[in-house]
Write a structure and sequence with these properties.
single chain; 368 residues; two-stranded antiparallel ribbon; 2 strands; 2% strand
Length: 368
């Protein structure tokens, strides 16, 4: 390679390194794009009512913030109250567990005692005290992490408002990064990404609503406390496929176990049934009509993005997979692979390994 190619290769490597170092910022920017794409539908409806775009953008963000704050005020007080009850009930629950184990031991394992393997409430308190001390010692670190979360949320909120207020310059700026002959094609791909994100959003919101209703009705019939809160939590965690439903079953099972052991088993059966409905009915009939993502691709994208980008990557795994699928299909498949053609000599018989390949023709290398 000549000197110019080495410089280009070095610049490309440095660019990849910089992008990797700011990957969290890029994910936050992508989250703002997803929110702006979702809220843009509300903005367009308000614009049809003769509302200016800037005002419509602010109203859309205000609606979103009101919903989130209202949800926090609904869910936080019952959870705090339930946690206080849990702290009071845990020692009694441990004593009850000791009694059950003693009964099982005397019935099935006579002559042996399992008391030494089950800590009483005093032992538990002594074990928890060092942990509490370490947590208190790391208070500054916890406060810093909380402050970082708040700053990131504010950054996403500001970016969302900016993108909603006037998205055209940002879109045109991104398109300008590509060669002139390909910019019209990039504009078309961005439109398809927006349509795909909209379809994914419709599907996931429908799934969340159905899961919330089914969970709430089931928990109310079982008589589990905080049915509404747990139903809302199950609906929200549906946003994270595979992982979210597993996490959503933990709080209602813990609450039901404090009331009666059979309720915990019933809650587990209920959530397994709801998960089967979502997997076998909702996702095939709703999500695949909106966005044709295969289940294996969904799971692999969650694992890959979680490994490379942490929790934020797991949260955004599905919209990232939706956008990546559009780009791969449009750029790699349509613009590259579909245009490869085989040049053969019509006057001679060539072996397969003697075949020459070239990419497309001058007319098929992209719009000018």
């Amino acid at each position: 390679m000549n000197f110019g190619k080495w410089i280009g290769f070095l610049a490309f490597g440095i660019s990849l390194y910089i992008l990797w170092q700011i990957r969290q910022v890029l994910l936050l920017a992508f989250l703002a794009v997803v929110l702006a794409s979702a809220l843009n539908r509300v903005v367009l409806r308000l614009q049809r009512s003769k509302v200016k775009r800037g005002v419509a953008a602010l109203l859309s963000v205000a609606i979103l913030i009101t919903f989130l704050v209202g949800f926090v005020f609904v869910i936080a007080p019952p959870l705090i109250d339930q946690f206080q009850q849990l702290v009071q009930i845990v020692p009694a629950g441990l004593e009850r567990l000791r009694d059950w184990v003693d009964q099982l031991q005397s019935r099935f394992i006579p002559g042996r005692s399992l008391e030494d393997y089950i800590p009483d409430s005093n032992d538990l308190i002594r074990q928890v005290q060092p942990v509490a001390g370490r947590l208190f010692g790391n208070f500054f670190s916890l406060f810093s992490n909380f402050l970082a979360i708040v700053v990131n949320l504010l950054l996403v909120l500001v970016l969302t408002i900016m993108l909603l207020g006037n998205p055209a310059p940002y879109r045109q700026g991104f398109i300008q990064l590509f060669p002139a002959f390909y910019r019209h094609r990039i504009d078309d791909i961005l439109t398809k990404c927006d349509v795909a994100l909209g379809g994914w959003l419709v599907g996931i919101l429908f799934n969340m609503a159905v899961i919330t209703v089914l969970s709430g009705v089931g928990l109310l019939l079982l008589g589990v406390p905080l049915a509404l809160v747990n139903a809302l939590l199950a609906g929200l965690l549906t946003f994270i496929p595979n992982v979210g439903p597993t996490l959503s079953v933990i709080p209602p099972i813990a609450i039901a176990l404090l009331d009666a052991p059979w309720k915990a088993i019933a809650v587990l059966i209920l959530y397994i049934g709801i998960q089967q409905i979502e997997t076998n009915i909702l996702t095939p009939r709703v999500m695949e009509k909106q966005v044709s993502l295969l289940p294996a691709v969904t799971l692999l994208s969650q694992v890959i993005f979680a490994v490379f980008f942490g929790f934020l990557g797991l949260l955004l795994a599905l919209p990232l997979a939706v956008v990546a699928q559009v780009w791969i299909h449009e750029v790699l498949v349509k613009d590259v692979l579909d245009h490869w053609r085989r040049n053969t000599d019509s006057t001679s018989n060539q072996l397969p390994d003697q075949t020459n390949y070239s990419y497309g023709s001058e007319e098929s290398r992209g719009p000018s």
